Amino acid sequence: MKFAGRRQLFIFRKEVCRCDFYLPRMVLNLLIGTVVISLTVLVHTFGLIAVTHAMGHLVARFRMHGRRSRIVAMISVVMGLFAVMTVEVWLWAGLYRLLDIFADFETALYFSTITFSTVGYGDIVPAHQWRVLAALEGVNGFLLIGWSTAYLIAAGTRIGPLKAGEHF
Questions:
Q1: Residues pairing with 122 in the sheet
Q2: How far apart are CA 42 and CA 34, in angstroms?
Q3: Is residue 78 exposed (0-12), middle (13-18) or buried (19+ Cβ within 10 Å)?
């Protein structure tokens, strides 16, 4: 008797939510999200390596008063970080277009940018079955932005201690 009651409750929830394939769709979201997160981590890793080399080259080339330029170093790091994160946002946007979650690339890119940056205006939302994937992008962006911040601090420290009264 109890089993029948639970089953009816489950069927009732299923009809109300219209979630016939909820569990498989969620697993699909998690699998796709895991692959894209792995790709963005690779992009970020190799991107930071490239930014490090570019910063070293630029700092060596553009010296001020015979010394390394901290300003050139910080500008190159910040612009490099923006370039790396732009590739990651575009990767997510391309996925949304590939899965036909949004009608055009501009909308997918806008949604990806506000989701990756965790701003999340809420003016554009994905279809119900893709909400978990969008949430994964938000977590991915949060972590990669934090990693970028740590890298920026490390780069500032590497370029040398600041003298009293100096700042970037």
A1: none
A2: 12
A3: middle
End-to-end CA distance of the chain: 72
Q: What is the dihedral of CA 142, 148, 154, 158, to 10 degrees?
A: -170
| AA letter at 129 | Q
> Which of 152, 144, 145 minimizes the C-alpha distance to 76?
152
3-class secondary-structure state, position 34 = helix
Q: Are 118 and 138 in contact (CB under 8 A)?
A: yes
Rg (CA), the chain: 22
State the pLDDT confidence band at 62, using cuts at 50, 70 and 90. confident
CA distances for 31 relative to 34, 57, 102, 114, angstroms: 5, 39, 20, 22
What is residue 137's predicted lDDT score, i.e. its pLDDT? 97
Give the least confident one: 44-48, 75-79, 102-106.
75-79
Nearest Cα to Cα of residue 34 among 139, 160, 112: 139
Which residues are paired to 26 by β-bridges? none
Token pair listed for 14? 């299923």
